[in-house]
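#data-curation
PF: Archiving a pair of folding outputs for the training set. Convention for this channel: one message per protein, sequence first, structure tokens after, nothing in between. First:
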Amino acid sequence: MTAENTAEVGAGPGRSLDITLWVLQGLLAAFFAFASAAPKLLGESSAVEGFDLIGVGDWFRYFVGAVELAGAIGLVIPRLSGLAAIGLSLTCVPQGM
């Protein structure tokens, strides 16, 4: 087996893993943009009620929506994807801990 054959054999699983991870990142970005950030930014009644229930103003709802949208965009930018993932995971931590 030559060095060229070894490189070809090792390239397959790594490339397919990269593609799988990028697809998952894209799906997570779409979720955070459309299912999480959009209702907060567009003022959907359930989002408004939820933030009223915890006693914070509309400004915080807009802030959280903007942070989630920025994180969703950051997930698909290679240089920002790690920081975006950390930031989005922090927004998911329950506040009562």
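PF: Second:
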Amino acid sequence: MSAVREELPEGRYGRSADERADRKLKIVGAVLGAGLIAMIGWFGYDYVSGQRISAEIIKFDVTADDQVQVHLEVRKDADARGSCTLRSRAEDGSEVGRRDVRFDARESRIDEVVTVRTTARATSAELAGCVADDGPKG
């Protein structure tokens, strides 16, 4: 007995329509994936390079019921000016203190201990954010 073949002999008549469609989908997917990765990379680079002032809290110490000492380290372009906002929170999470700190010195790295006055005993201090002035001022 001979078996009946339902498929064409392999390699004899070229690729099937399904194989061609699969290949096109793979190419389109690879191009779109590469474009997405490039776009994410560009946005990440633009975000990091576009920040003229960045800061971090090195440590904080609750020194009294109405104040917190915050050791703040600021990194910026030497000609950049701006401010950072610090806030402190109570144990229940409510904000009990806030302070804006200006940085106008022509230095690229500033270490400063700042006192944040509070309305109740704080349990934490955090950096809310930093903002650079629009342009360098001389």
